[in-house]
Amino acid sequence: MMQHILDDIAAEMALETERGKVADYIPQLAHVDPNQFGIAVATPDGKVYSAGDADTLFSIQSISKVFTLTLALNRLGSTLWNHVGREPSGDPFNSITILEYESGKPRNPFINAGAIAVVDAIMSGREPTEILDEILQFVQVIADDDSIGFDYRVAMSEIDHEDRNAALAHFMKSFGHLKHDVDKILNTYFHHCSIAMSCEQLARAGLFLVSNGVNQPTGVKVINSQQSRRINSLMMMCGHYDGSGEFAYRVGLPGKSGVGGGILTIAPGKGSIAVWSPGLNPVGNSKLGSKALERLVKQTGWSVFSK
Ligand code: GLU
Question: Other C-beta atoms within 10 Å of 87: how many?
């Protein structure tokens, strides 16, 4: 049944001619072929269903912010919220506007400024290479796959074009909201955004958010159930930048998108869905990915707003 649904969605998406625009502000991402589409669903019983280019690696970009947030909550608990807020921003992912109004404290962990603040918080007491190893190992453990790695060309491409993120970081630092050296924080941030994964790997990595913080197939307790619930609510409210309301309206599930064209979506108790198509809509979310998720929810009834 699930396999059939995914095959149908992939076939339908293959016919789409309006595929959105590949992100080009990170030059390395501009080379990605927009005619790709992959989808995978991992379920708590250990099964993974997939269709299309579901085993092709892509740059997970902002989806990695879900994993650094999880690490940070594990490490700092609720004191993390001294560093970053938990309200939707209604602004583009790289906006500096509200930062000025709110004295340099980012609105939430999923806009760039917020993710940079999360990196600063988890760096305490560690060298940049240690924290990067820790982030990567964490992702490998939750996805149960130690082949996952950074895409260094993408990381370098972001470092070469870091002006906007550097501006955000320096601005926050000027308000006393960052402790570490901005170059070190950004280096860590760009590397975690550069992690390359396939839809199948990403769907597995999201399983802990399906089952109250525990990855059922591996038995690994990633985070406690209250925090798992809270991460899901942040994904629902803030996971698609200024397209978060539209995504909640159309899909009705917690989700986090990245400018590489991936979206990780969680259907609590049911499954973890990863979808990827590199072309983005005007607010920076995968155009076909969003469409495919809307189809999937229609077919499965998996919205958190339906019974
Ligand atoms: N690394 C990207 C940036 O900082 C992440 C953006 C995204 O995926 O939304 O611009």
Answer: 12
Type of residue numbered 133: D
Tell me how far the alpha carbon of residue 259 lies from the centroid of ligand 1, in angstroms. Answer: 6
Decide: 165 in ligand 1 pocket, CB within 6 A.
yes
The reply to whether ligand 1 has any atom less than 6 angstroms from the CB of 243 is no
Cβ of residue 28 lying under 6 Å from some atom of ligand 1: no
Residue of the CA atom closest to atom 2 of ligand 1: 61
User: What is the per-residue DSSP string for 87-131?
Assistant: S---S-TT--HHHHHTTT--S-TTSHHHHHHHHHHHHTTS-HHHH
3-state class (DSSP) for residue 134: helix
**Length of the chain in residues, anyone?**
307
Q: For the stretch 272-299, what's the b/e string if a residue is b when 16 or more beta carbons lie within 10 angstroms of its beta carbon?
A: bbbbbbbbbbebbbbbbbbbbbbbbbee
Q: Would you state the structure tokens that stand for residue 293, as one six-digit string? A: 């998720």
Question: What is the distance between the alpha carbons of residues 259 and 289, in angstroms, rounded to a whole number?
Answer: 12
Contact of 231 with 63, CB cutoff 8 Å: no
Mind listing the pLDDT tens digit for each residue in 234-246? Answer: 999 999 988 999 9
Expressed in angstroms and rounded, the spacing between residue 8 Cα and the centre of ligand 1 is: 31
Instruction: Decide: 258 in ligand 1 pocket, CB within 6 A.
Output: yes
With 90 as the cut, is the pLDDT of residue 93 above it? no
Residue 215 contacts residue 67 (beta carbons within 8 Å): no
> Which pLDDT tens digit goes with each residue over 272-289?
999 999 999 999 999 999
Note if the pTM is more than 0.90.
yes
- 288 with 37: CB under 8 angstroms? yes
* Range of lowest pLDDT (3-12, 122-131, 177-186): 122-131
Give the residue among 258, 253, 236 at the shortest CA–CA distance from 294: 253
